[in-house]
């Protein structure tokens, strides 16, 4: 029996959002849980995020969005994912996400939505179950 698959996650901060404390906390928790984590840094474009996902061959793209622009940003991300034919990558979104927008995000293809205050253990468990069952 081989070594268990190590989940590779990109945590990305799209757009003009300058707040990354939550993203850094999530990134550290995922690393502590044994995942390989790439953090994009602040102010990334969707093209930069998708290019990094392709170059690093990640399993999961996590968007951290605090600006309220989660719907248009996520829509653009999925357009680029289809364009680059990397639909095998799971996408999750965290940050300031009103509950009324969760169904819209899931309809777009978001696998998991984690509003601020979601326990880190919940995010870790979700990623482990989502990626490892692929």
Structure description:
Helix 2 crosses helix 3. The radius of gyration is 14 Å and the shape is globular. The chain has five helices and five strands, in the order βαβαβαβαβα. It has 134 residues and is of the alpha/beta class.
User: Poorly predicted ranges (pLDDT <50, ≥5 residues)?
Assistant: none
Strand content: 15-25%
Rg from Cα: 14 Å
Count of DSSP H/I helices: 5
Question: What descriptors fit this protein?
Answer:
alpha/beta, five-stranded parallel sheet, 5 strands, 134 residues, 19% strand, 5 helices
Give me a quick take on this structure:
The chain is of the alpha/beta class and 134 residues long. The protein has helices at 21-32, 46-56, 70-84, 102-108, 120-132, and strands spanning 8-12, 36-39, 60-65, 90-95, 112-115. A five-stranded parallel β-sheet has the order 2-1-3-4-5, with helices on both faces.
Tell me the layout of helices and strands.
Blueprint: E1 8-12, H1 21-32, E2 36-39, H2 46-56, E3 60-65, H3 70-84, E4 90-95, H4 102-108, E5 112-115, H5 120-132
Parallel strand pairs: 1-2, 1-3, 3-4, 4-5
């Amino acid at each position: 029996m081989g070594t268990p698959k190590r989940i590779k996650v990109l945590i990305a901060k799209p757009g003009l959002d300058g707040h990354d404390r939550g993203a850094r906390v999530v990134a550290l928790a995922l690393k502590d849980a044994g995942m390989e984590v790439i953090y994009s840094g602040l102010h990334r474009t969707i093209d930069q995020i998708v290019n990094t996902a392709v170059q690093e061959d990640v399993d999961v793209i996590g968007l951290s969005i605090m600006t309220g622009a989660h719907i248009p940003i996520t829509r653009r991300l999925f357009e680029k994912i289809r364009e680059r034919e990397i639909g095998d990558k799971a996408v999750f979104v965290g940050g300031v996400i009103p509950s009324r927008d969760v169904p819209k995000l899931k309809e777009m293809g978001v696998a998991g939505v984690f509003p601020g205050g979601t326990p880190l253990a919940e995010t870790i468990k979700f990623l482990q179950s989502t990626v490892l069952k692929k």
